[in-house]
Amino acid sequence: MTIATLDVCQLVDLPKISDPRGNLTFVEAGRHVPFEIKRVYYLYDVPGGAERGGHAHKGLHQLIVAMSGSFDIHLDDGENKKTIHLNRSYNGLYVCPMIWREMDNFSSGAVCMVLASNFYDESDYYRDYNEFMKDVHP
Ligand code: T46
Predict the structure, then answer these.
(1) 64 CB near ligand 1 (under 6 Å)
(2) How many C-beta atoms lie closer than 10 Å to residue 134's C-beta?
(3) In terms of C-beta density within 10 A (0-12 exposed, 13-18 middle, 19 or more buried), how is residue 30 classed?
(4) Which terminal residue of the chain has fewer beta carbons within 10 Å of its beta carbon, N or C?
(5) Span from the CA of 7 to the centroid of ligand 1 (angstroms)
(6) Statement: the pTM of the whole predicted model exceeds 0.85
(7) β-strands 71-76, 39-43: how paired?
């Protein structure tokens, strides 16, 4: 198992084609995200005060984009923590495997889109922080 560090979880500037008719952003697998995209999902209608996440993935790579509105993502590699405020639809946050994440502070109307490197698989999750820590710091 590869132990991740927060250093690789960085904001990616996605291309933005500005146009008086409205802006356009695109994402190309292998070019803007360092993985093949196998799944896209999105969170929406998130009630004020809700928290999401609260888990880590063993092998999943993700790019998280605030398509609309804003929210905070708190990342934790077992040693260091950082919080990122996402509020631009031309920025994506790359999150590598083995990073505990929690999300909160969703604005009204926020839409969080996630590009993921694999299909949904519950066995890829750590949902217990102590289990995650045991594997990060055996
Ligand atoms: C992450 C944040 C941003 C599925 O059936 N298929 C799916 O593709 C997903 C993502 C979830 N589910 C089911 C599994 C659970 O019964 O939907 C329920 C909620 O899933 P989860 O606990 O993963 O939801 P979030 O919003 O806490 O977390 C998700 C991602 O799992 C996670 O990787 O970073 O969105």
Answers:
(1) yes
(2) 12
(3) exposed
(4) C
(5) 24
(6) yes
(7) unpaired
The one-digit pLDDT tens for each residue of the chain (138 residues) are: 556 789 999 999 999 999 999 999 999 988 999 999 999 999 999 999 999 999 999 999 999 999 999 999 999 999 999 999 999 999 999 999 999 999 999 999 999 999 999 999 999 999 999 999 999 987
Mutate to test the pocket of ligand 1, among 40, 41, 58 (most ligand atoms within 8 A of CB): 41
What are the start-end ranges of the E strands in the chain? 11-13, 16-17, 24-25, 39-43, 52-57, 62-68, 71-76, 81-86, 91-95, 100-104, 111-116, 125-126
Type of residue numbered 126? Y
CA 137/CA 66 separation, integer angstroms = 32
